Amino acid sequence: MRDLFRIGNQELSSRFFIGTGLFPNPHVQKEAIKASGAQVLTFAIRRINLESARDDSILQHVQDEAYTYLPNTSGARTADEAVRIARLARASGLSDWIKVEISANERTLLPDPIETLKATEILVKEGFTVLPYITDDPIMCKRLEEAGAAAVMPGAAPIGTGLGILNPYHLGLIVEEASVPIIVDAGLGTVSDAAQAMELGVSAVLMNTPVAKAKDPVWMAGAMRLAIEAGRLAYLSGRMEKKKYASASSGYEAFKLN
Amino acid sequence: MKLVINGKECELLDVQTIADVVAHYGLTGKPLVVEAGGIVLTAEQWGSALVHPHMQIELVHFVGGG
Fold this sequence. Notes:
The structure holds 2 protein chains of 2 kinds.
Chain A (H helix, E strand, L loop, with lengths): L4 E3 L2 E3 L3 E4 L6 H11 L3 E8 L11 H4 L5 E4 L7 H13 L5 E4 L12 H13 L3 E6 L3 H9 L6 E2 L13 H10 L5 E3 L5 H9 L4 E4 L1 H4 L4 H21 L21
Parallel strand pairs in A: 3-4, 3-10, 4-5, 6-7, 7-8, 9-10
Antiparallel strand pairs in A: 1-2
Helix pairs in contact in A: 1-9, 3-4, 5-6, 7-9
Chain B lengths: L1 E4 L2 E4 L6 H7 L8 E4 L2 E3 L14 E9 L2
């Protein structure tokens, strides 16, 4: 079954976007990315450490494969800072996609919705393909869509917590209302969370920590891939209604022994 | 010439262009992006972009992230 979706002018078959942070080493990272089947990789932009000769650029490890790169604006606290980082990212010539990520609180890293909307408006005007990371608020997600976001990425829970989907009701509403792809970004912990997100009808899932911090990141990447596919198929299949009482699979009255 | 590179004051000798600054740190050919005086420069512009005393220069690259 060909089950594609589109972001900007890119058609994608994998519904797993994978982050490139926190892996124990570049080899494990590369193998995990391969096992994930992901077509979209996220990364961050930082100052080069000029005192150390070590080449820690992420690109040297993944450049040989054909991926779509989704740089983020992590570290930005305002729309202006995010726009600056986005411009730097685009100057690399690798991608005009940008994940707007603006955190105003160091403890929760929750996105600042007002600055995120501002940055999205500016970057859309500048021709970027904008994927804002945002709280799981249905109205805010709609506002970002109206501002021209190519996809909207509500968080399931704060970044790196692995708490899973804290508000499935909101996520379901967001999907119902959306006319751009919804991608759950941040807060997932394990395969059941990823499957649940897909069952709720989101277009894709973005994960980093649950894979990178698993005891075996390569296996977990493969497991997540299966969970995302399973969740997607379940969503398309349409689950049964929940009932309060039992109903026998073979009928109960039909066969009695007295 | 005194420059502010990645937030630190540096004294670099014999640099006239951004390409010279990149070469000074042995970064020629590496995947990096430069912002000089608040303007983002593509790699093709480095050779012709002149540096001025006390110019603020950012040398950034891609690192792992989610």
